[in-house]
Task: inverse folding
């Protein structure tokens, strides 16, 4: 079987020759720099590491589509003081950057602070705007359709919670849900129209295997919103998007969220989502129990990355939970977080050698 066939058949609940071995969360640049001091070749990068470990792929072949604010805003330095700069990001917000530090920037001002700001952004959320597809689109389509790995569409910040939060900020999003719900409904419908119109056109020329929604809607205590808000604001758009994609032939819709997401599983299933990841097991989430309770939900990830930092005994203990999950089906093993530099090159290779043997 090809990697593409394995992925699709796995989440269809069909028989496969083996489970795919995918690098689903990636590695920090700082981690690779550490490994350069531990025997990894000085010129090795993430692609080299995937070859050494024997991964089939990362998440697969991603379609390079501009599916958020477009045209994007030009990056503009607004103010600089010492090592700190205020910079306009590609979505129109203002961020604080510190020279020489590769960390998540601090958002100072969001792109949408009032109704007028929203109307200015809304004109950049039109599926017909030229430039959403790359100039070499024909070549991209040919390579995707002929490739052996799963093909997927969308990722950060495409989501009905994650997307609006990037434009409004978390506090304003939740405030407007209560005080200005009509604007939130308009924002969500605009996103839904954009993604349906854009990706249904793409489906006519590219047979992508799954569509990914990025939400990050959970934290250590569960969902950031209650079930009523989920049902009133998110679920109708999930259902409409999922129905449109499935009618076009894309059967698998994945939602990505860190945090404890187990209470959202029945809501996501009702909404048309059939795969979730990365399942942070370090938060105590029991994916074995979730798999038994919701056998129709595909699960990706769920392996505690912290075990790789603690040593081989912890790694072996973590690996023991994988065979039963594989036996129950619709499970693709992978780490639950990006690999940070507290993980040694030796432990990383040991883990994936053992995992490859299990699958």
Result:
């Amino acid at each position: 079987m090809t990697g593409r066939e394995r992925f699709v058949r796995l989440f269809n609940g069909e028989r496969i020759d083996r489970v795919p071995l995918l690098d689903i969360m990636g590695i920090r640049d700082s981690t690779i720099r550490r490994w350069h001091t531990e025997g990894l070749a000085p010129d090795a990068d993430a692609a080299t590491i995937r070859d050494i470990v024997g991964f089939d792929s990362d998440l697969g072949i991603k379609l390079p589509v501009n599916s958020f604010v477009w045209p994007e805003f030009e990056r503009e330095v607004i103010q600089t003081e010492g090592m700190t700069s205020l910079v306009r990001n590609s979505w129109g917000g203002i961020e604080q950057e510190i020279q020489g530090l590769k960390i998540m920037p601090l958002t100072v001002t969001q792109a949408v602070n009032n109704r007028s700001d929203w109307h200015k952004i809304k004109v950049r959320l039109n599926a017909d705007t030229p430039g959403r597809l790359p100039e070499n689109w024909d070549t991209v389509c040919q390579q995707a359709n002929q490739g052996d790995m799963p093909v997927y569409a969308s990722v950060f910040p495409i989501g009905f919670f994650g997307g609006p939060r990037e434009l409004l900020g978390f506090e304003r999003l939740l405030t407007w849900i209560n005080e200005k719900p009509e604007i939130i409904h308009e924002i969500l419908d605009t996103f839904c129209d954009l993604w349906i119109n854009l990706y249904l056109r793409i489906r006519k020329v590219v047979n992508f295997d799954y569509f990914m929604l990025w939400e990050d809607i959970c934290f250590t205590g569960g969902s950031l919103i209650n079930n009523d808000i989920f049902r009133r604001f998110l679920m109708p758009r999930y259902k409409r998007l999922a129905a449109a994609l499935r009618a076009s032939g894309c059967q698998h819709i994945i939602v990505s969220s860190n945090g404890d997401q187990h209470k959202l599983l029945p809501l996501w299933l009702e909404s048309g989502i059939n795969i979730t990841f990365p399942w942070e097991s370090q938060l105590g989430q029991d994916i074995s129990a979730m798999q038994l309770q919701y056998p129709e939900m595909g699960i990706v990830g769920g392996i505690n990355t912290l075990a790789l930092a603690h040593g081989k005994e912890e790694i072996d203990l973590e690996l023991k939970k994988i065979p039963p999950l594989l036996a129950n089906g619709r499970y693709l093993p992978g780490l639950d977080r990006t690999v940070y530099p507290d993980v040694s090159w030796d432990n990383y290779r040991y883990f994936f050698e053992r995992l490859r043997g299990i699958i």
